[in-house]
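Reopening this one. Same input as before:
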Amino acid sequence: MPDVVQDAGGPVDPREEGNALFSRGDWKGAARAYTRGLRECGGGKERATLLKNRAAAYLKTGDYEKVVRDTDEALELCPSDVKALFRRCQAREALGQFSEAFKDARAVHHLDPKNAAVQPILTRLNVKLQEKAKEQASTLNKVKSMFDYLLGEDVSQENRVQAANNLLVLSKEKAGAELIMAQSGVPKLLAAMKLEKNEQISMAIVRILSELCKKDTDRTLVVLGEVGVPFLVENLNSFSEEYVACVQYLVQVVLDSLSGMDLREGKKPDKVLMKENEAAIDGIMGALVGSVSARTMSAEGRDAILELIMKNVEYGALNWATKLVRSDGLWNMLEVSSELREIRYESSMRVSGRTPTHVAVALERVYDSMDHDRAREEYRTKVMEFIGEKLKGPDIESKVRATAVITALLQGPLDVGNHCLGQKGVVEMMLAMANSDDELQQRVAAEAIIAAAAKKDKCTTIVSMGTDILKKLYQSKNDAIKVRALVGLCKVGSSGGFDASVKLFSEGSSMKLAHACRKFLVNPKKDKDLRKWAVEGLSYLTLDADVKEELIRDEAAMAALFELARTGDLSVVYGCVTTLVNLTNSYDQEEMIPELVELAKFAKQHVPETHIKDSKEFTEARVRRLTELGVTPALVSLAKSESKNSRELISRVFNAICEQPDLRGAVVQQGGAKVLVGLALEGTDKGKLIAAQALSRIAITIDPEVAFPGQRCAEVVRPIMALLHPECKGLQNFEALMALTNLAQVSPSVRQRILKDSGITKIEDYMFQQDHVMLGRAATQCIANMMLSDEVVHLYELEDNDRVKFLVLSSDDEDPDTAKAASGCLAMLTGVSRKACKKVLQVKQWHEIVRKLCACGDKELCHRGVAVAHNLVHAGGECAERVVETDLLEILMALVRPEVDDVPQKVKDLAAETLAEAQRLRLIRANTGGQEEDEEEA
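Same output, byte for byte:
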């Protein structure tokens, strides 16, 4: 427990608040309160106490590095503070710093020889240090041996590869990583890369460097100093996707270690650490954005750099967007977006089919991270300067490149794209290009028109000026132009969305366009690019319910769509996923309140109409059909996308499938649960919640240990906990509580994870919501399973809360299931805690409620009531006496009578044990032969 220090004026408010929050199990809230107190206090003992208290909170949340930092400072102020030493010892042991932890434990023992808690830690650490010494001796020999093989002159290539892989295995263990560093491992690894140009060896070495840097800032700085930033960029410049992926991972690990960030685990950067390593971080990011437009860079390397920019530039990551815009980074990215594979010179950049999508997403991430109007204006100004430079060129190529940039912006930061589109003459230029005879101009202009039709106001312009041009382009003999014109027509024709009453084209046009898209999609002779555009056309047309119904019955078309999705090509993600979202009706829909609809009709306002084939019956049938056809593997492949919006769409489809309980097993079997964990941890805020709801639904109906094997059970806790928020829908709250109830049964580590995320406080909030019976019931059931945790029992034992009282009162709830959950929870709690038994007796209505349970005709409630009475009597002393003073024992005597045959035997046994204990305590006398005899005195 935290220390409470009082001054003449009483406890300082933040410290008092922190202590109260700590006692309730809200450790994060307690840490925040202590932090506030640290800002307000001076130095000396008061500051040391607040630091120790915050360290105690961080111990509970598992933030062991912060514990060490706080206790270090506390010990500078009070060098012989036993509690600070003990907490630092615990944190260091958790971090695997056994030698340092042992020193702290010895110091605690020296200062406080009677401290019983430190004795087992000393023993445990002594054993670990001896084991570590033996392990290091063995590992050292292995490290030396593997380096001998790796750098030996007469060693075969096969043995070198094996040695590199063995070193990789060793580097994954802390002892191995330390010994590799101690043996000047990094220079040796670099020498091995130069000794023999072998991709397998190089990949193993890059992976070793990643392991050395992982979650260790000091080692990362040493490695970075040895290899240098140019090494990272040079090694990204490879034509091997597998090798580039290894180097990309290394760069991300380095950035994570320097910033204290881990986006997958939801760990934001440490501001102090980022400030300390700002120069190194800026050096890496500057090198990346400087190389993104390098003419010598491979297409694979360029895509990797764009992905790294996407992941790290955001406000929630390294917050590097402003620096990127103010340097040449934005200009370089715009250069990439202007690159066209059809225009090839010796100085042209190498780009892949994924590059346009990557650069559009990267541009969007940068713009979204501009957190104020002036920064956004600076972004737009730079973009307009770039496009202005392109348009100044006298040749048509410059205009084509400028149009390609506008297309990328319309697919990425839409506001900026629309700003460009609104400039005088831009739309007219695009339409003139589309109306030219040059096929390249036609293709680029068609893509721009498709992107420009994203907004209804721009779509009106395109409809009035460009529909005829699109129809003309559709007559082209060049399939690449024809399919783009087709998509443009699909997009314009679907601008009414799912409102069945809005049709820009004549009746039946949507179906004709869908048939045209199908021809491109199912034709195996057409290349992937054409099929990709065909799917994008369907993504607009499937807002029409008639098109949905025809497509879902077309096995050949659906098989072609899934085959395209399974390629993993990120450029097909949007079209494929949007089509699936439309088929499952998992897009956002405004709830139509009947009263408001009638009011709108009275005011002669347009009211959107829902097609009969978009009803729940039709939608569920389409969802089932998709699952039968194998949509899950396709979604798993599509989930590799870095686009947060696409990841949200994928989550929507998964959630629509998981809405049907009998389809959840197929999702788990085909790898969907693993993907959903990633989607719930990284994406848009809404997308993460949607994925978390799908995870909750899976955890409700499938054994969590089967659905989320190993560590994944603990990983799903945090995203599911995010659904316990007032802004989430009641159904999301309910499903999250049900899922947590099942997860809490899995293991102590999962229960600890729930506790770490302030789970008890959040769950209990729903127990108190009397207006929502199902939420209250689910929350109570969850707490019952959490009662398996000693820490939860301790929270209920504390004197400063009414948790036990609420359980007692809830045991008499009108809802039978809530009463069963509460009384079951009470039975578990009183079975392990005498303090809880005493708290039960402090509740005014305890006798009436327990009596009612014991006499209840519901066998489950009766069992729980007898168990509570059993526990109260076995608590002995005052508790047993209070029970005997009531008529509870008479009810128990009635239950154990042989002639009563409708009482389960386990209930009879409990009642008999309770009576026997009361007799043993001499609170009642045995009835022998009709006469009562006092027991002999001992």
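So the earlier flakiness isn't reproducible anymore. For the record, The chain has a mean pLDDT of 86.
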